[in-house]
Amino acid sequence: MADVRLRNGHVVTAHCPNSGSMKACSEPSRPVYLSKHNKPSRRLKYTWELIDMGRSLVGVNTIVPNRLTEASIAAGYVKALSGYDTIRSEVKYGENSRIDLLLENGQNRCFVEVKNCTLVTDGLACFPDAVTSRGLKHLIELQNQIRQGDRAVMFYLIQRMDAERFRPADHIDPAYGQELRKAVQRGVEILVYDVAIDLEGISLNRRLPYQL
C-alpha cells in the first residue's frame, strides 16, 4: 500500500501492485499517477500505476509487463520470438510452476519468463531489486526445459525509458546472478527491452544489450 496526497490535498491509500523493494522508483514527494476503480468489492479504490523519476516515467504495476510482452509478441514486434502459431499464458510446467508465456508451433515450444525491471542507475538496468527465491526457481525450471529439447527465454522488460544496458543485480542477489549465468551457458536466452511510456499508454520500444 502507498499513501498518496492528491492535488486537492486529500491523502488516499492506494494499492501498490509491486512486491519488490522498488529501489529507484519510490522516492517520497515524487509525482505519481493513480488509476481509480469504483468496483464495490474493492477495498482500495486507487491503484498506483506510475511515478515520475525525473529522467523518465516509471511503470510500477507488475501486471503490465506480461500483458505488454504477450501483445507485442502476438503483433510481431519481437523478431526473436516470431514464427509461433499460438501463445498461452500462465501454463503449468515443471515442479508446481507456471510459465508466463508458452509459444508453440507444432512440436516446437518456447518457454518465456517475463521479469519486470525498474531498477535503473546511470543508464544501467538491474534485476532483481530484492533477493528472489522465486526468480531463482524459474531459472532452474527453464534449464530443465532446455534439457527436454525446448527453447527457453528470460525476457526482461524495463518499464522506463532511461536505461541503456542491462545486467543481473549481483550486489543485491548474487545467487540469482550466478544462476542466470549458468542458465545462459546451458542455452537459456536473454531478451531485454525498454518501453515508450507516457500518460496515454505504454508500448515496447528498443531492444537493449546485456552484460553478464
Written overview of the protein:
There is one protein chain. This protein is of the alpha/beta class. It has 2 domains: 2-59, OB fold (Dihydrolipoamide Acetyltransferase, E2P), CATH 2.40.50.580; 64-207, Trna Endonuclease, Chain: A, domain 1 (3-Layer(aba) Sandwich). Helix content is 18%, strand content 40%. The chain contains 3 helices and 14 strands. The protein has helices at 64-74, 133-147, 174-185; strands spanning 2-5, 11-15, 32-36, 46-52, 57-59, 86-93, 97-105, 108-117, 119-121, 124-127, 151-158, 165-168, 189-197, 202-207. A 6-stranded mixed beta sheet has the order 6-7-8-11-13-14. Strands 1, 2, 3, 4 and 5 form a 5-stranded mixed beta sheet that branches. Strands 9-10-12 form a 3-stranded mixed beta sheet. Helix 2 runs parallel beside helix 3. The longest helix has 15 residues, at 133-147. It starts with a strand and ends in a 5-residue tail after the last strand. The model has no long low-confidence stretch (mean pLDDT 95).
